[in-house]
Amino acid sequence: MTGRYKEAGVDIAAGGRLVDRIAPMAEATARPGTMGGIGGFGGLFDLAKAGYRDPVLVAATDGVGTKLRIAIETGRHRTIGIDLVAMCVNDLVVAGAEPLFFLDYFGTGKLEPDVAADVVAGIAEGCRRAGCALIGGETAELPGLYATGDYDLAGFAVGAAERGRVLTGSTAAPGDIVLGIASDGLHSNGFSLVRMLGAEAGLSWTDPAPFDPARPLGEALLTPTRVYVESCLAAVRAGYSGSGVKALAHITGGGLIENIPRVLPQGLGVDLDGGAWTVPPVFRWVQSVGRIAAAEMATTFNCGLGMVAIAAPDAAGAVEAAFREHGETVTAVGTLVQRDSGGKTVQIAGWDEQWRA
Fold first, then answer.
1. Whole-model pTM?
2. What is the pLDDT of residues 213-231, one digit of tens each?
3. Residue 168: which residues within 8 A CB-CB, separation 6 or more?
């Protein structure tokens, strides 16, 4: 007999079947410190087994914004989970923290097990790239709150760093080198604007992407956020002497202009060379079709730099080499300078010319 709760739109049995499907995915992300499996009331993790003696815990939470709409409308759900993990763990590594474990929230109007399994497969892949364990989460079926076919995601990551090695940016000084680490595109920011521009241009998700004609627009825009954990931790360790990597900045919403100052002491600014790195074609398409000012591009998007590292001049070479050895494209893009409180913290020389090139 059909239960009344199921008549109301909530299928508890479907949720149970989903847990059975995703359990092996979570188990595949196990790492030292993992305890037990998913399905309990809370996830367990043993810091001592992870090798920490005097750890400071670092926590981060995030989502993927309206990039979700493209995944939902195209039926491409396999990579959005990578975005979810990346947006959280890239924030953790800015503190020099190693991501240890991850939890997710998946809310939907009606649970579609195949869709949810694809999403969680992406989350598990993101955790694998970050070296952290997927130890739990929550699936909520909420009819009447979400429209048919819609779902929402939130992620929660916890990491750790030994107490004396937490990156705070406090030792940054004038003359330090700014290294820009290339992004894989838009990552997970600015999609409300990007979706609006696509609609204004009369494009569908199946049309060839104007900036990448070999792929449909929807597929190209769903290129997942790059996970910088392995390379950032390697760079921190390679340059660690108290004066190696002094700060990291994850370039998300707010772009270069808003994010770099978050890790700098008061009174310091950044002079960037706007011609030092290559702006990927997707950003040039967005700027052109939207007739967006260069200054707005720098305050909305990563513009090709998904992570920024601040390094002492005598350590910059070792830090840059470590990033390259771990597969990153890295370029010296500027320096730290003394800046009066009335001036713009981040200034980009030749930025207007870059967009006219």
1. 0.93
2. 999 999 999 999 999 999 9
3. 95, 247, 263
